[in-house]
Design goal:
Helix 5 packs across helix 10 (about 315-335) and helix 6 (about 235-240) crosses helix 7 (about 255-270). About 35% of the residues lie in helices and about 20% in strands. It has about 350 residues and is an alpha/beta fold. It has three domains: about 1-105, no CATH class; about 110-180, Vcp-like ATPase, Chain A, domain 2, CATH 3.10.330; about 185-344, Rossmann fold (3-Layer(aba) Sandwich). The strands form three sheets. It has a five-stranded antiparallel sheet with strand order 3-2-1-5-4. A five-stranded parallel sheet has the order 12-11-10-13-14, with helices on both faces.
């Protein structure tokens, strides 16, 4: 939901002030692009802006297009920006990429916007935007029926994997984007590594919770960036902290009493990422315990261990935390399965 989050508060404030506004949505990016599809720029009738669809290369030109749209010069439409070879004379991307940006007037009375502005911050949903002059929008929650049966598979995949995609429906193109809270990272074990990992992960867009029953170790003041510190054993504590299939779990306790129940809970939840701190021997011992507990080899094989990108060569807690965070980012962006082995 990062792109929508960039402009949500501004759009709400402009609505409350009675200011008309327009939004630009990045719906396509080729080659090198500084922002991903779903990024947004919003402009009100006074020319005030919020958000961005690039790193500043095209925003001023987009602003002028959107102000003209608000003055009645045409309706919703697609704008294409390519590479700019002369930074002074041309409007475009200096990185050499190409982007497609859909601009549309913001309708504060639409059903989709009314539902969107009251959406729970932790909820998942899909926003469909019609890429035609009317630019209709539809907000779908996970339990809502798809608007057409032939869209069901694509929308179900978006609900699980997130991201964006273009869809064809009723003979027209639609832009579908998954709206989701920032990913939840559950760190098991209040170790020195956990202290650094919590702070760094929060800076890169993860919501973080610490799970450790040892109150003297898991002190809230050590984890100011954490949403919560749960003083329970992992079997119950992870569930209390919000563990589900979208979660990331980093087990850095290095203690079998915490490691094994944490791994069991993470595997049962089929979460997106499971990492285990420890040597190869530690990993083998934990794997055997999971095998004895009845977990299938293919489930156990999902555990990333030893956790983190080894080629970074980290030794100190902060360095190890960096290597773990790098692996988490790869898992979040979908590159871990493709490049994780080589990067380790």
């Amino acid at each position: 939901m990062a792109g929508m989050k960039d402009v949500m508060d501004s759009l709400k404030a402009w609505d409350a002030a009675g200011l008309r506004s327009a939004e630009a949505v990045l719906v396509g990016a080729q080659h090198s692009s500084p922002r991903q599809p779903g990024a947004r720029l919003a402009v009100n009738e006074k020319g005030e802006v919020a958000g961005a669809v690039s790193m500043g290369c095209v925003e001023n030109d987009l602003r002028e297009h959107m102000l003209r749209l608000l003055r009645g010069a045409g309706g919703a439409r697609m704008l294409h920006y390519g590479a700019a070879f002369d930074a002074v004379l041309e409007v475009g991307l200096s990185c050499g990429g190409e982007i497609d940006v859909w601009i549309r007037p913001h309708d504060p009375e639409s059903a989709a916007w009314q539902a969107l502005r009251t959406l729970d911050p932790h909820a998942h949903a899909i926003l469909l935007t019609r890429l035609a002059e009317e630019s209709e929008q539809i907000l779908l929650r996970p339990d809502d029926a798809p608007p057409a049966p032939d869209l069901a598979a694509a929308l179900a995949e978006l609900n699980v994997r997130g991201g964006t995609r273009k869809l064809a429906w009723r003979g027209e193109n639609w832009f579908a984007e998954a709206l989701a809270p920032d990913p939840l990272l559950l760190i098991v074990g209040a170790s020195p590594i956990a202290v650094d990992l919590c702070a760094m992960a929060a800076r890169t867009g993860f919501r973080v919770a610490i799970v450790d029953p040892r109150r003297d170790f898991a002190r809230a003041e050590l984890f100011p960036a954490a949403e919560r510190v749960v003083h329970r054993w992992p079997g119950e504590g992870l569930a209390e902290a919000g563990l589900d299939a979208h979660s990331f779990v980093a087990v850095v306790a290095h203690d079998e009493k915490l490691d094994v129940p944490a791994l069991e809970a993470a595997l049962r939840a089929n979460c997106r990422y499971v990492g285990l701190l420890g040597s190869t021997h530690t990993r083998e011992v934990r794997h055997e315990a999971l095998k004895q507990a009845g977990f299938a080899p293919e489930a156990i094989a999902r555990i990333r261990g030893p956790i983190g990108l080894k080629r970074l060569g980290g030794i100190e807690p902060a360095e190890i935390a960096v290597s773990i965070l790098a692996e988490l980012i790869m898992a979040r962006r979908g590159t871990l399965e493709l490049t994780g082995k080589e990067a380790r």
